[in-house]
Amino acid sequence: MATTTDILAEITGMLVEILGDEFLLAEEVTMSTSFNEDLALESIEFVALAELLHERYGSEVDLMGFLAEKDMDAILAMSVGELVTHIGRITHASLARTSSAAATAPAPTARATSAPASTALTAPAAAASAPTAG
């Protein structure tokens, strides 16, 4: 399971891809870094981030849906840490669902492998046609 540090590093890598190395070299991305105040992310850059998050984490990590739940002040004040926490919660819940589904799935049944299928089919017929002593 991805840790907070792992997720922060992945988001930082995505931000470097979107904003460029030279911008982020001057600004270390931490949990308290704000998207608006510190990074000055524009809406098109949020869309690019949403696409990268989708590629990395799948459709469950829906940045635009996450932002839609916030009012404008909350979006403007949002920190990288809020997104990291959201991703951690979503991926943890997804992992828990996957684990519980695997635990409740029926175990595969083992097939008998003592004799090839062709032998198993012909053995009774051969025994029936064998001459009997008598």
Question: How is the secondary structure organized here?
Answer:
Elements: H1 4-19, H2 21-25, H3 43-57, H4 63-68, H5 72-77, H6 80-104, H7 117-129
Helix pairs in contact: 1-3, 1-6
Question: What does this 3D model show about the protein?
Answer:
The chain contains seven helices and no strands. About 10% of the residues have low confidence.
- Estimate the mean pLDDT confidence: 79
Low-confidence stretches: 116-129
Number of helix segments? 7
Please give the share of residues in helix: 55-70%
Shape: globular
Number of strands: 0
Please write the string of helix (H) and strand (E) elements: HHHHHHH
Key descriptive features of the protein:
134 residues; 7 helices; 64% helix
Overview in brief:
By secondary structure, the chain is mainly alpha-helical.
